[in-house]
Design brief:
Elements (H helix, E strand, L loop, with lengths): L12 H8 L3 H11 L6 E3 L5 E3 H13 L4 H8 L3 H19 L1 H4 L9 H13 L7 E5 L2 E4 L11 E2 L4 E10 L5 E9 L4 H8 L1 H9 L7 E3 L10 E2 L11 H12 L1 H12 L16 H19 L2 H5 L7 H4 L7
Parallel strand pairs: 3-8, 8-9
Antiparallel strand pairs: 1-2, 3-6, 4-6, 5-6, 6-7
Helix pairs in contact: 3-5, 4-5, 5-12, 11-12
Organism: Haemaphysalis longicornis
GO molecular function: metal ion binding
Cofactor: a divalent metal cation
Amino acid sequence: MAFSISKIPKARSSSSRLDFRNRTWTTCTLYLYLDPDAAGEIVTAQNVTIPGREALCLTLRRLAYPKRWGDLEQLYGRHTSVMSSCSSMVMNHVITLFGHLLKDLNYHHCISPASLRTFLRAVQDKGAHLTNCWAFVDGTTRPICRPKRNQQLYFSGHKRMQMVKYQPLMCPNGTVCQLDGHYPGSYHDARILRESGMYAKLEEAASGQDQDFVIYGDPAYPLRPLLMKPYGGCNITPVQEPFIAKMGCVRQCVEWGFGKVVAEFAFLDFKKNQKLLLQQVAHMYKVATTLSNCHTCLYGRHVCSYFNLSPPCLRDYLKPLSVQ
């Protein structure tokens, strides 16, 4: 018998949180906003019709923890090939309809002059020495299975393994408003910044404002008018030390963002199944980041609690580009 979300007993809410990273009722809510056209079902490459909610649950279960499709056949009552096709279609749907939420910070509804001022006040209230910092940027690396081609390109000399890199921009309200990648593991953060075009998007967001809204990154990034970083060199003065310490404390929120994505969707942390030439590795990470942002909208996040800000409403966050 095929799986149905309506058959998840209410008493098993803890199991629902483990399997799908959401309570049963919020999984239904998430489905309604992820499928604004209310199509209600998808048809896989094998010409099998699957209800939309079941397809979402299947994808959430796939990302929640490493497990072979064959191990899920008994739970879902579907063939391995059908579940694989279904999961790919759901992830493509999320990327197609909501990919703009991570592609360009200027497409994000929360990036407005009023919200930027709210963000910088929240950062300043935590003791930051910068009075106009509204977000934090950093690079994160994810291990991958060693590819047959371009092994040297994806080899990280720092981590000593093959990896891909992403560049997220974390807001104090707990959401990632832009995610660039993937990039080869051998790329430097400064090169990723240049090739991603993030700085040009920052300039677009700051144009016409009465003050410069800056972001803060680690020492690997170049110093720009809208991109600040810690003081460098060996001769740090007593005046500079408090700046580095205070800004380092607030900048750690971007690390919490990395941690939440992998903690909620541990399949991304299973190196043996991150096969660059066989799977849509970047798609999976971006979908997981989007779903992690949705999780923040529903349940909050350590980041927004730290800055005493409320996350955006799920309805407002999951707006297709055509209605923004």
